[in-house]
Amino acid sequence: MDACIAMIDARDEGEEVSDQELVRIVPGPDFPTGASIMGMSNIKQLYTTGNGGIVVRAVTHVETGGDGRKSGKTAIVVTELPYQVNKAGLLEKIATLVNDKKLEGISDLRDESDRDGIRVVIELKRDAVPAVVQ
């Protein structure tokens, strides 16, 4: 809304809103499912040329022990998925990669989502490094 107001005000004054000003007002799209946008250069290209793509990544955090896990166990917890990513399809793809030994370090995969939000738990083997699996 702020961008529309800025463009109308600039037009009334016979000016234009610069691309840099537009990026400052609207730093990127707001997807309904959340997730994180990776890098601003693609957004700037999208604003200046009208073409381009935006790389979006799930929001995750690492939990160690607790929550019913054996002490010392680590899990990567996904709390937001990119727009139009099917959770069931994602879980199936991860399971296939683990079974085909293309993705190592995962001991368990669970969907603990409820009406309060998404929670996909990727439990790691004891010797797995979360930053590598992520």
Summarize the model shown.
It is built from 5 helices and 6 strands; from the N terminus they run H-H-E-H-E-E-E-H-E-E-H. It has 134 residues and is an alpha+beta fold.
Question: Mind sketching the topology for me?
Answer:
Blueprint: H1 2-12, H2 19-25, E1 36-37, H3 41-49, E2 56-57, E3 59-64, E4 74-80, H4 87-99, E5 106-111, E6 120-124, H5 130-133
Antiparallel strand pairs: 1-2, 3-4, 4-6, 5-6
The structure class reads: alpha+beta
Report the average pLDDT across residues: 85
User: Which term fits the overall shape?
Assistant: elongated
Q: Enumerate the spans where pLDDT stays under 50 for 5 or more consecutive residues.
A: none
| Elements, N to C (H/E) | HHEHEEEHEEH
Strand order of the biggest β-sheet:
3-4-6-5
- Individual helix count: 5
Largest sheet: 4 strands, antiparallel
Considering DSSP H and I runs of 4 or more, what fraction of the residues is helical?
Answer: 25-40%
Return Rg in Å.
20 Å
- Beta-strand residue percentage: 15-25%
Folded structure, characterized:
- The chain has 134 residues and is an alpha+beta fold.
- Helices cover 33% and strands 21% of the residues.
- The chain is built from five helices and six strands.
- It has helices at residues 2-12, 19-25, 41-49, 87-99, 130-133; strands at residues 36-37, 56-57, 59-64, 74-80, 106-111, 120-124.
- The strands form two sheets. A four-stranded antiparallel β-sheet has the order 3-4-6-5, covered by helices on one side. It has a two-stranded antiparallel sheet with strand order 1-2.
- β5 and β6 (120-124) form a beta hairpin.
- α2 (19-25) packs across α3.
- The protein is elongated, with a radius of gyration of 20 Å.
- The mean pLDDT is 85.
